[in-house]
Amino acid sequence: MSAGVRIIMFGRQGAGKGTQSARLAKHFDVPHISTGEMLRNAVKQDSVVGRAAKAVLDRGELVADDLMLSLVQGRIGQEDARTAGFILDGFPRTIVQATAFDSLTQTRPVGFVIDLDVKREIVLGRLSSRRVCRSCDASYTATGNEPNPWQCSKCGGSVVQRTDDTPAAINKRLDVYEAQTAPLIAYYQGRGSLHLVDGLGSPDEVFERIKTVVETGLRR
Ligand code: ADP
Ligand code: ZN
């Protein structure tokens, strides 16, 4: 086994990618690299990247490939990711990103591509009740009975609806997913690194499925 666990997570918005990526990162002791979270942080800090990305994010469109590539290249080049590996959540999202990422990782290729499968009808329901912590990006499900203001149980930050979880932006992101990201599944399938995992069930059940796939693969 080559040192390091390198995993790409695919799945529609609301499939549970973020939750499962965080768990995998903890389990395998590797960094969780969420490009959406990196961008949201950039917006919060009002950095150059954040200012360029804010409107694009709120419309539910994709940020430019070259910007995303330089963000990801910078992050995977850091010590923790270089030695331990990474869980990549939200990248690549286009064929351009995938092929460029292949050349970047030629010497240490990604070992697993997980497609967390949840149908569109189901994620639509999940997304309308999704709430996130403004500080740490932890994800919650609204039931209507939460305290107001709602505080994150992990960090105490305020739990809010994401500004891109409006019906219009959700539908846009799902359309973009089908058009630009779903074709990548065939791309990775062709290389034999793709694993389809059923995303229905409790977070614990889904995590067990993914863990089994990865641990079985690592033993081979
Ligand atoms: P979701 O999966 O719910 O859309 P993410 O947190 O993964 O949430 O991404 C939020 C937004 O960040 C996307 O709608 C897009 O605008 C931008 N984004 C994240 N990753 C990428 C990427 N690899 N390429 C282009 N844009 C991205
Ligand atoms: Zn929090």
Describe the structure.
The structure is a single chain. This protein has a five-stranded parallel sheet, with helices on both faces. A three-stranded antiparallel sheet has the order 6-5-7. 50% of the residues lie in helices and 16% in strands. The protein is of the alpha/beta class and 220 residues long. Helix 1 packs across helix 10 and helix 2 crosses helix 3. The radius of gyration is 17 Å and the shape is globular. The protein contains ten helices and eight strands. The chain has one domain: Rossmann fold, CATH 3.40.50.300. The structure holds adenosine-5'-diphosphate and zinc ion (ZN). Zinc ion (ZN) binds next to loops.
How is this fold's topology laid out?
Blueprint: E1 5-11, H1 17-28, E2 32-34, H2 35-44, H3 48-59, H4 65-76, H5 79-84, E3 85-89, H6 95-104, E4 112-117, H7 120-128, E5 130-133, E6 139-141, E7 159-160, H8 167-181, H9 183-189, E8 194-198, H10 203-219
Parallel strand pairs: 1-3, 1-4, 2-3, 4-8
Antiparallel strand pairs: 5-6, 5-7
